[in-house]
Each structure stands twice: as C-alpha cells, then as structure tokens.
Amino acid sequence: MAQTAPRITDETRRAGLRQMRFVATGLLVLMAIVYVLTHGRDGAWAYVNAASEAGMVGAFADWFAVTALFRHPLGIPIPHTALVRRRKDELGASLEQFVTDNFLTPQVMREKFLDAQVVRRLADWLRQPENAERIVSEAVPFLRRGIERIDEEELRVLVDELVIPRVRREPLSPLAGHLLERVVEDGSHHGLVDLAIRELHAWLALHQDQVEAIVRSRAPVWAPTWVNDQVTRRVYTETLRWASDVRDNPEHQLRIAVDDYLAEMGRDLQKDQRTMERFESLKERLLDHPQVSQTGVRLGETLRSAVLDALDDPSGHLRTKMATELADLGTKVVLDDTLRARLDAWSADLVVSLVTRYGPEITSVISSTIKRWDADEASDKIELHVGRDLQFIRLNGTIVGALVGLIIHVVSTFL
Fold this sequence. Notes:
Blueprint: H1 10-38, H2 44-70, H3 83-86, H4 88-102, H5 106-116, H6 118-126, H7 129-148, H8 152-169, H9 173-186, H10 190-206, H11 208-217, H12 225-248, H13 253-271, H14 273-288, H15 290-312, H16 317-335, H17 337-372, H18 375-414
Helix pairs in contact: 1-2, 1-18, 2-18, 4-17, 5-17, 6-16, 7-15, 7-16, 8-15, 9-13, 10-12, 11-12, 13-14
C-alpha cells in the first residue's frame, strides 16, 4: 500500500518561506558587499566586480518579479503588480477550469481508480473477521434507529395503503405459476414431500387405534364383528405399508403423481384462463377478509421485535451471521478474479458517472472559496504554499546574472 505523504502545516510552510527569503536576500547582500569591496580595482578583481554588479541586477529584477505577484514592491502601486490581489477571482476560475479539464476527466478518474485497486484493498480489509465485526457493530445503531421508527400505525398504513392495494392490482397467477414451475423443475419441493410423508407414516404408526376406529366407523352394521375387525386391521396394515413404500421409494407413483400435478398446475396458472380466474378470485377473497390487514401488521410487529432483539445481542446468530457473510464476501472477492474484475468495472463506471455529473459542482468549490477570500488573505494563502519555491527564482537570477555579467565583461575586455 502506498505511503501517504505527511501533512505539512501552515507553520512549517511559513518557516520554510522565511528561511528561503533570508537565503535569497543574503545572497543579494553578499553581491552588494563584494561589489563595494572590488569597486575601482583592476586585474582579476574587475571581473569579480562585474559579476557582482550583474548579480545584483539579476537579484533585484527577480525580487521585483516575485514580489509583484503578491503585492506592490516597496508599497508603490506600479502597474501590473500585486497580480494575485487584483485578479484572484480570475485565477480561481482558471484554477477551477484547469482541475476540471486535466484531473476530473472520465479517463483520468477511471485509470486512477483502477490503479488504486480500491475493490481488492477493501475486500482484503473486509475479509478479516475483526473488521467485518466492526462494520456490523458500526451499522447496528443505524439499523436500530431505522427499524424503531416503524411503529404499529406506520405498519398498518404500509399494509393497508401500499401492500394490499398493490397485490390487488397486480395479477399474481402468472407469477405464482412461474415460481411453481421452477420449483418443480428444480425439485425443490421434494424436501417438503419427504417431510409430509415421514410425518404421515409416523402418525399412522403411533395412532393405530384412532385409524382403526375411523375405518370401523364406516363398516356396514350388518357384517359380523369379527369380519369388520379383520378388515379394519387389514386396511390399517396396508395403509401403513403404503405410507412406508412412499417414504422409502423416491420413484413411487404417488411422488410422480404429485410432480405431474404441480407441473400441470404451474402451466395452468400461466396459460389456462379458468385456472387464472379462480386463482385471482381466491386472492380477492383473501384480501377482502378483515383479518388480513391485522395479520400483516402483527407479522410486521413480530418481525420488528425479533430483529431488534437479535441486533441487541453481540454474540447472537443475526450479528454473527452478518459478520460471517461480510468476511466471506471479502474472501470471495479477493480470490475470484472474475468477480473482482466485474466489481472493478462497475465501481469505475459509478465513479466516472458521479464525476461526469457532479464534477463541475465539486470544482466550483475552488472558485467560490477563492472569491469569498479577502484579496490580502488570498495572496497570503497562495504565497504561503508556493512562495518558498519562488525564492529559488531569486537565487537563480542572482547566480545567472553574475555569470552573464562575468561573460559580458570577459567579452568586452577581449574586444
């Protein structure tokens, strides 16, 4: 992970600016002293004198240029000086345009986002269990406040004015048929059938007397008692054997018949007009029942209370499951290159979309902030950030001026 550059405070910048000003001014003073000491001398000192003289000229010229950016040199209102003070609004607008055109462009933002590997780094952080638990712990108070705001009256309004009218308007028969058809295709109902037949067999095995009593109650009164008893026991035995066969044989005819019936029902719910009308009629009767609304509200209240109780338990199943799922998601994103590539592309598209839509509003902060600054304040802030580097112009001007002056003096001597 790239190291973040340490933050530089204004005090540090101000100290650096004072130091470089002292160095640049000191070099000017040195040139002046050398000029005075070598003035009027012949020989090699003449060359030194010419160099120091030109160095002073270069130092004064560049001091004037640097100072004129932020204030009037020596307080004299010379034209085209104190440029930052006079044109801070134009500079702010130009800076805003520069950032918009060169930094907040879709291509630059996409490349920067993908180079940063935000998704991978976030997933790598999230896969750590302690980090996933931290996310859950931070999110729980917000979840609680959101759920607690939903009281019974709001649930009633939600059910009566949104859920029930929406269910009433929408034809549910095609949806129910499609879901039933998919359930049969996937065999998802087999578990429920297994459970039902196991419970039926267990009930028959434990309630022989009740079953025989039911069968005996339907026996003809004119038949001898011993005949009815034999028939009753035989019926019970065959029924129990039949339930056992259905339970143990996955290919039993009853199971096949159930599959065929459910598949046909799924098709009819989507295509048979009569079945669809009967289903919608049943839906309307259920929705018209006065207990539907009350039941929905009670279910909502029960679910709300259960979720709140589960959120209050740090070691409970809900919070543990949430943390585990988050950690598993992070691990999957790290290990699955295809999934991570899709998330990278989706995230980059989102960033580009946000920049394209809100980039001008973001960069407008630059010009609006600078416009609110006082002219002197704007000049001081900008000088504080770039003034230290500008002092090198003064140093370079002094040194280059001295070298040019020396060369000119040499050439003049030879000529």
